[in-house]
Amino acid sequence: MDDFSAISDHSPAHTWSAQQPRSKAPLIFFLSLVLLGMSATLVTLEFFKRKNADQEKAANPPVAKTVAAAVAVEKKMTPREEAEQILKDTKVAPVQPGADNPVDLLTSIGNALANRDFDKVEKLIGKEALTDQNLDVLKKLGNEGQFKLRVPNPVREVGELEINRRARYALELADREEGRDRIYFDLLKNEKVWQVEKITLPPTAGQSIPRALIVDTLGISDAFLLASLNQNFTLAKEFVNTEKVSDATLAGLCILFEEGNYRMREEKPLRAMIQKDNIASFLANVEASDGSQAAQFAITLKKPPGNPNWIIDELNLDQLLSDYAKRVAGGDVYYSPLIKNPSGGDTLVLYFDFDANQLSLRTERQLAIVALILKTDTNKKIHLSGHTDALGSKEYNQTLSAQRANAVKAYLIKSGVDPLQIITAAKGLSEPRRPNVTATGADDPEGRRANRRTEIYLDF
After folding, report:
1. Is 52 exposed, middle or buried (0-12, 13-18, 19+ CB in 10 A)?
2. Of all helices (H) and strands (E), which one includes residue 158?
3. Under a CB-based contact definition with an 8 Å cutoff, are residues 229 and 263 in contact?
4. CATH value at residue 169
């Protein structure tokens, strides 16, 4: 017992405690610190690696993905704007730039022509539409300084060739002879982008100026309307079937344009309605010069058998006449420059105030157009018939109607018309256009206004 105790007493004091398991917390903490440090190092290295790669990529961007492309997405550029931006930034030409706005496309082409930037002209028009011959003509005109754009509207929409798909525009040039002052562009809409399908250049010096530069249905209609708007009765008449469209109708249209102060609407002035092998029709859209009001009339064209050329076969001016009457109505004078002739066709008519035979400023302006027509051919004759309403005696109205017819004749002679071209007649109250009284026998002032007139029958 004592020996065992002795042995225990002489053993090392920590022999039992050393055999107990030590705590691993310090070791785990140390290893965690090492791993955390390594992770931070790797993250830092990856960050600088990517940063260097981005800097290198920005310094050497791929040709197909320039800053312009990003800008185009951010700003929602049109295809043409994106193409021009790419061309500016990378000097790489895009393939056939187009535009979702045809006016923008034509404006860019016009500016490029004015600046003689023919490389840009080629890219905007495209090689399929711009032949080498046309390009040579454009370069010649450009080098001669003949590409000065008309201001403020150098681009004019002519009309539709095919509803919402094909259209024609004209690039208007300033300081050039009429007939040589516009370039026509036929555009095709392909997936909301307009592209040039065909270009028609004006005749060059030495070449004769045709009646219509383009002789299809739209070209004929456009040339006819331009002639009418410019009061060129003789040229306008060359585009119509004179057996179906009377001189009075043509003169009336000229008067409506001049007196109504109309112009062709800027957007879709001519809308295609029918396009067949031998018949076509357009809806002509016009508006007041201030753009405040609009009206329409129909143009129908036909291709006579054996004749390769289209001709205007009918003009329906009813809506235009109605709009004109509403716009100029007022006072005690009735307005409508065209009325139906009982024997067929239309007759020009001028109106007078009650118990008056003096011409108003409006009727004088209308007669100026008639005088211009008569002076172009002294063989042409007109018949003037004076009329009155039913108030007053038959004898008094007979005299008044003669005075109204003679007032018109005197103005035409003063305007340079040969007196032998004018034949007059006094009708008095015998041929009212509208009833002078209502169905109940009461006075009808509106009807009487329509009867105080001088009719002009164009006998040619």
Report:
1. exposed
2. strand 155-162
3. yes
4. 3.10.450
Contacts of 52 (CB under 8 A, 6+ apart): none
Asked whether residue 283 falls in the same domain as residue 297, the answer is yes
Same domain flag for 113 and 175: yes
* Residues 124 and 175 grouped into a single domain: yes
Determine the structural domain holding residue 298 and report its residue range.
Answer: 227-328
- The model carries a pTM of 0.70
Written as one letter, the residue type at 100 is D
CB 220 within 8 A of CB 212: yes
231: left (phi over 0), alpha (psi -120 to 50) or beta: left
**Which DSSP string do the residues of 268-321 spell out, in sequence order?**
SSEEEEEE-SSEEEEEEEEEETTSS-EEEEEEEEE--TT--S-EEEEEE-HHHH
The answer to whether the CB of 194 falls within 8 A of the CB of 180 is no
330: left (phi over 0), alpha (psi -120 to 50) or beta: left
Q: Which residue is it, tokens 């054996």?
A: 306
pLDDT single digits (tens) 60-96: 555 444 444 444 445 556 555 555 555 455 444 444 4
Number of domains into which the chain is organized: 4
Residues 384 and 408 sit within 8 Å (Cβ to Cβ): yes
